[in-house]
C-alpha cells in the first residue's frame, strides 16, 4: 500500500465543533471514512472508500479517489467549499 497524494487538498468540517481538516492524501481520507463519517454506508461513502483503497494500491489515480471523496463529503454536508 502506498500513500496516494491528491493534486489539491480537500477541506472538510469535522467533529462537534466543526473544526476544519485539510486532507491531502488517500490515507487521511480512508481514516476519516472509516472512523468518523456521518453517512457511513451510503453509496457515495462506499464508492469513496473503494476509490481511495484502489488508489493506494495503484489501480486508479489519486484524483479519481479525490473526486469520489469530494462527492461523499458533499453528501455528508462536511465539505468546505
Care to describe what's here?
It is a single chain. This protein is α+β, with helices and mostly antiparallel strands and 81 residues long. The protein has a domain at 42-81. It is built from three helices and two strands. The chain has helices at 26-35, 43-56, 62-75, and strands at residues 5-14, 19-25. It has a two-stranded antiparallel sheet. β1 (5-14) and β2 form a beta hairpin. It is globular and about 35 Å long. The termini are far apart. This is DUF982 domain-containing protein. Pfam families: DUF982. InterPro entries: DUF982.
The assembly state of the depicted protein chains is single chain
Low-confidence stretches: none
Number of helical runs? 3
Beta fraction: 15-25%
Strand order of the largest sheet: 1-2
pLDDT averaged over residues: 94
Q: How many angstroms does the end-to-end distance come to? A: 30 Å
Shape: globular
Number of beta-strand segments: 2
Backbone CA Rg: 11 Å
From the helix content, strand content and strand pairing, which structural class follows? Answer: alpha+beta
Helix content: 40-55%
Biggest sheet statistics: 2 strands, antiparallel
SSE string: EEHHH
InterPro entries: DUF982
Pfam family, one: DUF982
Protein name: DUF982 domain-containing protein
Organism: Mesorhizobium kowhaii
Amino acid at each position: 500500500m502506498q500513500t496516494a497524494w491528491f493534486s489539491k487538498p480537500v477541506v472538510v468540517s469535522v467533529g462537534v465543533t466543526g473544526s476544519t481538516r485539510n486532507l491531502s492524501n488517500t490515507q487521511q481520507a480512508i481514516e476519516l471514512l472509516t472512523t468518523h463519517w456521518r453517512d457511513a454506508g451510503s453509496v457515495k461513502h462506499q464508492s469513496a472508500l473503494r476509490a481511495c483503497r484502489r488508489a493506494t494500491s495503484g489501480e486508479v489515480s489519486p484524483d479519481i479517489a479525490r473526486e469520489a471523496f469530494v462527492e461523499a463529503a458533499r453528501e455528508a454536508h462536511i465539505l468546505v467549499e
